[in-house]
Automatic annotation (TrEMBL):
PANTHER family: PROTEASE SYNTHASE AND SPORULATION PROTEIN PAI 2. Pfam families: FMN_bind_2. This is Transcriptional regulator. InterPro entries: Split_barrel_FMN-bd, TR_PAI2-type. It comes from Pandoraea terrae. The lineage of its organism: Bacteria, Pseudomonadati, Pseudomonadota, Betaproteobacteria, Burkholderiales.
Length: 211
């Protein structure tokens, strides 16, 4: 993606945090039939490989997994905070009016060679990890083993796993870093008034060099 220096952040730990907070990634690959894209919930394992490893699963009925078994590289795109930025929020509007709208956002792209996995034990571990990542904070978390064993066997047989050791990571955090401090303060105030508190916090943190 287009990465102006002001918005670029390729630190693996920052990218991994985005993936954990926004695990639904868009898996993109290019096979003989052209481009394919599927949104999938991913888990990142930071300690595995130079930049971490991504794992997910697809429906066996989805032909994308067969394409993955034959390609040398795929990409997964994760979108985090995002919000429209009105030029009316800039102090510069009142000073000279030379302002235009924009869109702030945070995104992470990861590349790697996918490995297709059909092993039932591997898939069960992945399902346990994925469920735990979403259920552990609940008062009564649901566990994979809460479902009947015969039902689980059928469900596991209906999916295929994908593992992607990350070769390359890119992070883009477009959070008004290219604007003067007075404009950033106006953006923070405007975003909060619009209910975009997460994006407002990101603009404030990036402006203060806290991330």
């Amino acid at each position: 993606m287009y990465l102006p220096t002001a918005f670029r952040d390729d630190r693996p730990e920052v990218a991994h945090d985005v993936i954990r907070r926004h695990p639904l990634g868009l898996l993109v690959s290019a096979g003989s039939g052209g481009l394919l894209a599927d949104p999938l919930p991913f888990l990142v394992y930071p300690e595995e490989g130079e930049f971490g490893t991504l794992r997910a699963h697809l429906a066996r009925a989805n032909p994308h997994w067969q394409v993955l078994s034959s390609v040398d590289e795929c990409m997964v795109a994760f979108m985090a905070e995002q919000a429209y930025v009105s030029p009316a929020w800039y102090a510069a509007k009142r000073e000279h009016g030379k302002v235009v709208p924009t869109w702030n956002y945070a995104a992470v792209h990861a590349w790697g060679k996918p490995r297709v996995i059909e092993d039932a034990a591997w898939l069960r571990r992945l399902l346990n990890d994925l469920t735990h990542s979403q259920e552990s904070h609940r008062l009564e978390p649901w566990h994979v083993d809460d479902a009947p064993a015969d039902y689980l066997e059928v469900m596991v047989g209906a999916i295929v796993g994908v593992e992607i050791p990350i070769r390359r990571l890119e992070g883009k955090f477009k959070a008004s870093q290219n604007r003067p401090a007075a404009d950033r303060a106006g953006v923070v105030e405007g975003l909060r008034a619009d209910g975009a508190a997460a994006m407002a916090a990101l603009v404030e943190a990036r402006g203060q060099g806290k991330l």
